[in-house]
Amino acid sequence: MLNFMGEDNALYIRDHLQAKLTLDSQADKVVYIELPENKHLGWGARFKDLAEREGKEFIKLRGSTRLIRNLIDGRWDSAEYLYVHPGHTIEGIYDWNEICRSRITEGSLESQ
Q1: Angle CA(26)–CA(30)–CA(32) in degrees, nearest 5?
Q2: Is the pLDDT of residue 17 over 90?
Q3: How far apart are alpha carbons 29 and 51 in whole angstroms?
Q4: What is the pTM of this model?
């Protein structure tokens, strides 16, 4: 790949795709979401060390890729995914139980 792209381009791509650990100087705490799929890479410990060196509170949350896996696998539980059928639009609700819902669009074939 280096011969095809040239060394400068290869180094640019490497530098911009490589993960970097930097913290916002304005924040007094940092949150790290640990996923089972990348836990073995040790990013959580590295991030915690960086936070402590900069005097920031470190908070670690356990994350999951379950929603993404279910989306890809076609397991779309209506309690977690919004179905938007042809002729429907998304309507904002923004209450404690519901963020948005699908409703029939006025003038669509389905509303007639």
Answers
A1: 150
A2: no
A3: 8
A4: 0.56
Give the tens place of pLDDT for each residue, 85-99. 999 999 999 998 888
28-42, pLDDT tens digit by residue? 888 899 999 889 999
How far is 61 from 75, CA to CA, in rounded Å? Answer: 25
The residue written with tokens 């705490």 in the block is 29
- What is the 3-class SS of 59-100, one letter each residue? EEEECCCHHHHHHHHCCCCCCCCCCCCCCEEEEECCCCCCCE
The string over 98-109, giving b where at least 16 C-beta atoms fall within 10 Å of a residue's C-beta and e elsewhere, is: eeeeeeeeeeee
> Which among 7, 8, 55 has a CA at the least distance from the CA of 30?
55
